[in-house]
Design a protein that fits this description.
The protein is mostly beta strands and 104 residues long. The chain has two helices and eight strands, in the order βαββαβββββ. The strands form three sheets. The protein has a four-stranded antiparallel β-sheet, with no helix packed on it. Strands 1-4 form a two-stranded parallel sheet. The longest helix has 5 residues.
Length: 104
């Protein structure tokens, strides 16, 4: 398990239209529960990821290879009142990728 001060060097992909949400999630996401904000629930102060990359816009209409051999397609899914991408995993060709989520 990582300590709150541990640095993790991985890219974070996000659609361009949602990029601003990574600046101040307490303000921009509206995430709260039982009077607790996003940061309250995380238990540590928010630190913006160091390696933010924009998810390609065409990744919402077809699978795109983020790295060779790994293709992702985002599907806007309504969660509460906001749209969130759901990532699909599967072949890049004409085959339909499998939906991956809880219990899969």
């Amino acid at each position: 398990m990582l300590a709150s001060d541990d640095a993790v060097d991985v890219p974070v992909y996000i659609p361009e239209r949602d990029r601003y949400r990574l600046e101040e999630p307490d303000i921009t996401t509206g995430i709260s529960s039982n009077g607790m904000t996003f940061t309250d629930m995380a238990g540590t102060p928010w630190r913006q990821p160091a390696d933010i990359r924009l998810f390609p816009g065409d990744g919402f209409s077809r699978a795109v290879e983020m790295v060779p051999g790994i293709a992702l397609r985002a599907i806007p899914a309504r969660v509460t009142r906001r749209l969130h991408p759901v990532l699909l995993r599967g072949p890049v060709g004409g085959q339909r990728p499998a939906l991956r989520g809880r219990g899969h």
